[in-house]
Amino acid sequence: MGDSQKRAIRNYRSRLGERGLARFEVLGRDADRDLIRSLARRLAEEGPEASRLRAAVSQTIAGEPPKKGGVLAALRRSPLVGADLDLTRPREAGRKVRI
After folding, report:
1. Cα(11)–Cα(23) distance, rounded to whole angstroms?
2. Which three-class secondary structure state does DSSP give residue 49?
3. Which residues contact residue 46 at a Cβ distance below 8 angstroms, ignoring those fewer than 6 apart?
4. Which residue from 8, 33, 92, 99 lies 20 to 30 Å from 43 (Cα-Cα)?
5. Torsion from C-alpha of 52, 58, 63, 66, nearest 10 degrees
6. CB-based contacts of 13: which residues, under 8 Å, 6+ apart?
7. Radius of gyration of the chain (CA)
8. With contact defined as beta carbons under 8 Å apart, do 43 and 50 qualify?
9. Mean pLDDT, the chain, as a whole number?
10. How far is the C-alpha of 8 from the C-alpha of 13, rounded, in Å?
């Protein structure tokens, strides 16, 4: 490899480092290549989706039980929060059953 190629690689890796990214190699099944690449691409993005994906993968790998309060947190994110819905139902005695 020539000096210009080495310099280009060094500059490329330096620019990646400035963005908070690193290049690395992993071993895996050939069938999982696209999955691994798409996962890495999503994790490299900043934002809530990448954070949720990172947490889900970490939890799956670690095998830890999920945190408590997940259902409550999901309900609080619902678009119906504060919609003042009337969910009352009339009370009925029911029907007679023949035996």
Report:
1. 13
2. helix
3. none
4. 8
5. -30
6. 23
7. 26
8. yes
9. 87
10. 9
Residue, of 27 and 99, whose pLDDT is higher: 27
Compute the distance between CA of residue 15 and CA of residue 33 in angstroms, rounded to an integer.
25
Q: Which of 43, 45, 44 is nearest to 55 (CA)?
A: 43
What confidence score (pLDDT) does residue 63 get? 76
Would you say 21 and 44 are in contact if contact means Cβ atoms under 8 Å apart? yes
Distance between CA atoms of residues 25 and 73, nearest Å: 37
Token reading at 75: 């309900």
Q: What is the pLDDT of residues 45-57, one digit of tens each?
A: 888 889 889 988 8
pLDDT in tens, 69-94: 788 888 888 888 888 888 888 888 88
Query: Is the pTM value of this prediction over 0.70?
Result: no
Residue 98 and residue 91 in contact, taking contact as beta carbons nearer than 8 Å:
no
